[in-house]
Predict the structure.
Amino acid sequence: MDWWYRLKKNPLARFGAILLLVFYCAVIAADFVAPYDPYASQANGSLLPPTQIHWVSQSGQFIGPHVYPTTQGDTNLETGDRQLIVDYKKPSPLRLFVSGPKYRLLQMSLPLPPKWNEVTIFPGIPLDWHLFGTTSEAKINILGTDDQGRDQFSRLVYGGRISMFIGIFGVAISFPLGLLMGGISGYFGGVIDSIIMRLAEVMMTFPGIYLLVTLGAVLPPGLTSTQRFILIVVITSVIGWAGLARVIRGQVLSIKEREFVQAARAMGGKPLYIILRHVLPQTASYVIISATLSVPSFIGSEAILSLIGLGIQQPDPSWGNMLTLASNASIIVLQPWLIWPPVVLIILTVLSFNLLGDGLRDALDPRSLRR
């Protein structure tokens, strides 16, 4: 377990791993972490700024953290400023673990073709507790609200489910495909090697983002966001296997000449068994590192597709389609709190995966340690 010790001693890799653990725990338990339904609009609450938290009442008495009911007022046609109506007569205390909208924690369902009927995998745990919230009518919008009056923080947490898991699912599809194709190509060689490698080269000649945009544009318009999510994962995975297959093929060419592979062949082992049982496990360290460093590309693909309207569609949230507001210049100037949170989360997630991948590379291959 020397590699685990070296990984723990790497502060940057440890930081990336902790940050990813926090993010994944938050999005998995989004129903609990988010204070409100991401689809519910607040009355007269569109484009509200982040809620100001008060500790002292209007009379100067300390009463703990609280907020006041806030709604939008009229807009000044000359200056463009929007008036906020704050009811200072109704302080609403902030509390942890408050009762709110009901949900089913950890509920999992999967739509299956051809009719895309959802099949429940796990029914979830019925709860109505939320991590934080208010105890009366006032709302706590720590990141403000969007143009539909929906809580931005709740949508950000729920949107992370798609944006963060698309990379995991993409790697789970593309890497087994790349491993198998590369293993077969390197082990058998000859005509099979030539066919697979020419196919990989053809796949690699397509500009990935342009192909994604083209395929995203021809998806049937009636698909739900879950169905689009699955199709985007499949599309990005089919595109992404070729590079891994080429690298694995080169490693297999060397591994297949080693004594243990020759012994397995002499004992009558079938080629596919030898590839899966003896050859491909020798590439595990490279695959783990490459998988960690590949997840950000899937996250970026989803964000770009959703940003240009070809990925996850409104009202379903994802970090990519939450950035569509950036196309409105007035939003960028007057409501920047709607743009920066998804941008920062995408940057932090990509950075964390890269830091963890670099740490794994140094831990699994001590020769790559920086002097």
Q: What stands out?
A: The beta strands are 54-56, 62-67, 70-75, 82-86, 92-105, 108-112, 117-122, 125-134.
